[in-house]
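Re: weekly structure request thread

Next one in the queue (179 aa):
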Amino acid sequence: MSQTKTARIGILTSSDRASAGVYEDKSGKAIEDVFNEWLSSPWEKVYRLIPDDRATIEKTLVELCDAEGCCLVVTTGGTGPAPRDVTPEATEAVCQKMMPGFGELMRATSLKFVPTAILSRQTAGIRGASLIVNLPGKPKSIRECLEAVFPAIPYCIDLIGGPFLEAKPEAPKPFRPKA
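Done, posted below.
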């Protein structure tokens, strides 16, 4: 099966300092680099850089899913225990179904590298025909977490009516049950 439609993938960075221009958003770029490296099917980036503000995160997630038609929205930042870390709450507020296995697997994977992974509150959920996945904020952790959950992402997108995502041979292999 091959895809004819270009997949729209939202990349949402929530960072007070990066959105204020204090430093460059390396996390959003890391996500883009991974998808460029792994996806063989055509895809288009829909990028947003916003402050760590729950109302703004919720509004932007809704925009990326409903107005921009992203089949996948990957967030970075705002998943820790600090008072301004509200990305999981914003994600839960806009999703019809939560997919807790994504966060569980990402934390288990991150625990192999750092004991503070238990402080991460990453989650995932479904909004309409969009999968939203919360990633950590560090580029190294982004790649590690995506390596863990990427095999399930294309099939999840299939199940919610999204485009057929295909991966390059060097990418983590997407799993699709045999018909």
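The chain has seven helices and six strands. Residues 95 and 159 are 16 Å apart (CA to CA).
Next request, please.
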